[in-house]
Amino acid sequence: MAQVLSLIVRFRLALLALTLGVFSSVASAQTCGPNATAVRFNFGTPAQVGTSATGGTATWTTSSLGPTGKPLGTVAAGTANTLTFSMNKSANAVWTSGTGATGSGTQSPMQFTTGNMANSLLLAMNNAANGDWTGMTITFARPMSTVSFTIGDVDTANDPWDNSTFQDRFEVTGYLSGVAVTAPVLTPNSPANYTTTTLSGITSQITRNTAAGTTGSCNNTQTACNVVVSFPQPIDAVRLRFISGPAFTAPTLQYVGFDDFSFCEPTGPDLKLTKAATTTTFVAGQTGTYTLVVTNVGGTATSGSYTVTDVISTTGLTFPSPLTPGGGWTCTVGTTTVASDTASCARSTALAVNGSATLTLTVAVSPGATTTPIVNRAKAWGGNDPNKTTLTSTGAVANCSAANEGLSGGGANAGCAYEATTLARQANLTVAKTNGVSSLLAGSTATYTLTFANIGPSNADGAIIKDTSTVGLNCSAAPATVTCTTLTGGAVCPTGLTLGSSTSSASVPNFFTATGITIPTFPVGGTVVLRLACRVTATGS
Fold first, then answer.
1. What are the mean pLDDT values of the chain's consecutive 10-residue runs (541 residues total)?
2. Measured between alpha carbons, how far is 407 from 387 in angstroms, rounded to an integer?
3. Contact 284, 424 (CB under 8 A)
4. pTM: predicted TM-score of the whole model, two decimal places
5. Domain limits of the chain?
6. Cβ atoms of residues 481 and 528 within 8 Å
7. CATH 2.60.40.1530 fits 271-424, yes or no
8. Whole-angstrom Cα distance, residue 86 to residue 59?
């Protein structure tokens, strides 16, 4: 039986050239703008890398193909358009290889070198269950625009010759600075043959190839098996996953191939911006700090001045003036038309390719600030970046969101950074109580002075105050009264009380319960003084 199975596997591998579809060159037909160069890459030996159709050579070591955690090799190592390859798989997935491929020996992936699949890379698997996957991640040295490539042979089949039933799935996800970006566009050569799906808005999935006969398998005459993957925004990494199922009852060795990587390499400076708060929470009445990092991911160094414009869109936050962050930055806070919650900081020291500059900004958080989260948006521009030549208004900054932080290249949202920080209030409240005497006379009225103070750092609007009835004192029935006598620092009398007017304590009964009464406005440095008159009911001895 083992010998029979071995023959079946060899037979299936011998059919590899027939079951993998012809790759079209659609992905290589790259058109770039005036500030970028078209680059094409395939998996030949050596790997072919070049601008437009000129071609060229670069380092590609086929013996380095390998499993999880081991590099698959690099292309154009040490250059601005270096590509690095790594591989992983699900726990139960099985890597496998076969004849007609070079490089991996006993593991996927394989570099295919013959026939019309020459210069392509194949992912192979022989999995046991639905959901098992073999994956590869391709990482660029810096963000590249309009990345595209071709995928071939995502099958659905029921092959009676070896009793296999399988359904291939292929998922593609693009990343920028470690964050998944908008899902790529999938364009099948024959749309009717494939089902394409967007998962969670970030991953595109291909299933259901029905290109050939009743099985859905491809052969070497069918370009209808090809799908072009393209990304509408810059990315610096691509995750590929070749997945089993769900119709995967008797799997055998399966392949999917990809090739014709094409992208636009920025030729001038290209600024991206990231930011982070030094703490997860800002406290009202204290200061907060943001760290912004400008990085040049372009192909040449910056020239001239480049600027970061930072806007805090939350009431109660301001930049100090003058703002002196150091590090070669010169900052202006506010303008005649923009409030003090906007800072514009410029720097002229050139940023080399992959060079960066850090800008640290401190903001004052008003003691009365209440809005949470605190939203901070910023944008980098200038430096002879051809896509970020000017910033005409803070309206462009207002378009920045968490989804496009770190975005380079062109477009309205390139050069954006975004941070949302939780706001907390912390107040230190004190109370003092005295009646100014050392003894009380039965049947008399005892008058107490209660002084409530807020020593900050945050406003304590809505603070609850209360008192406790004591045996021997009746503070809640006539002639008991409560008077709001003194206010300082902008504080307001508790609800139900009027400054200078004595009120029957019975009209504010919650003052003597767990509910308490509310000071609606209680700024830092504010005080509220109450006078409480109570009948002495103790008889004494």
1. 27 33 45 72 55 36 36 51 71 55 40 59 72 82 83 69 67 85 84 80 73 48 76 86 74 72 81 91 92 89 93 79 89 64 91 91 89 89 89 84 83 88 92 89 89 94 89 84 94 93 87 90 95 86 60
2. 12
3. yes
4. 0.62
5. 2-266, 271-424, 427-536
6. no
7. yes
8. 16
